[in-house]
Design brief:
Layout (H helix, E strand, L loop, with lengths): L1 E9 L7 E8 L2 E10 L7 E9 L2 E9 L9 E2 L2 E7 L5 E8 L3 E8 L4 E5 L4 H10 L3 E6 L5 H4 L2 H7 L4 E5 L9 E3 L4 E4 L3 E7 L8 E6 L7 E5 L2 E2 L2 E2 L7 H12 L7 E4 L4 H11 L4 H15 L7 E2 H7 L8 H6 L5 H14 L3
Parallel strand pairs: 10-11, 11-12, 12-13, 17-20
Antiparallel strand pairs: 1-2, 1-5, 2-3, 3-7, 4-5, 6-7, 8-9, 9-10, 14-15, 15-16, 16-17, 18-19, 20-21
Helix pairs in contact: 4-9, 5-6
Amino acid sequence: MTKNGYLQIVNETVGFRSAFAGFRWFGRWVPVSVVLCARSTVKSIFLDQVTKKQGVYYSVCSVTFGTLFHTGPKINGRELVIQPTPTPTMKIIPVPCLEDNYAYIIIDEATKEGAAVDPVEPDKVLGVAKENGVELKSVLTTHHHWDHAGGNEKIKELVPGIRVYGGSLDNVKGCTNKVENGDRLSIGKDINILALHTPCHTKGHISYYLTGKAEEDPAVFTGDTLFVAGCGKFFEGTAEQMYQSLCVTLASLPQPTQVYCGHEYTVKNLQFARTVEPENAKIAHKLSWAQQQRQAGLPTIPSTVEEELETNPFMRVDLPEAQEKVGCKFPVEALRELRQRKDNWRG
């Protein structure tokens, strides 16, 4: 399988034998190790148009993932060895449900124990779990709306003894274990979960922040609080609460955190974002990528906290220039105005 993208070699120091690289795969950086040495065991990589800018090498490349090895390319007379990073201990599988919902299966690879996030179609979710040899032990419910919590009772019937977690303020259907902000859970051996209260869409909405081993990027499941380039409607809360949820709680997570939201709204959200910041090149680029993904029948999740801070107008309201775009002088005021505009926008 060959994928085209860009290889970025960073932190090169003369005399050191290693550096780091990222391969842009399906629109986002996938880290790999790069070793500078005299003998190459490159896994079928082709580099072209190598340039160096401010000490960083950039190159158009094609990488073939396989088991055969052959002599690799050279930069400045030295050969590159591309070594994939270790297999992650935390695996996340999106499961499209209903019209545009996402449920998720989280797998601890060491034990094959798993959790389901918002399994509104239990039969479908359990089928995917079975295909991957996963024993589901728990359900993480982000909020009480039927298209997220509506499968809880059935999955309890299908998997006797399964634990169903939900916000203590949210009256989640089928909930067996209520959680509050700061509560900690786990999946299998290596996955730790922190419950984050992110109210406004519903008063008891919970986002789940997951960490695996130290070398893995964390992940956060944001339900209908944070979407890619958007946010949920203020059904049970205020602009002040949404500001706290988005711009304080979620924005404070590590920037590489992978963002898994509850719906496939990305293209429409980015189209709206362009009306707010038409000169933002990162919004335009991500919109083009998202449209290609959807045309190919592929999801646009996950995003990252970093990408959201760059392209999501609702997470950029702390910036004076973003406030000015909507005629406001304060972040919460700008967030309220953006939500009203989005509610009335027909695209």
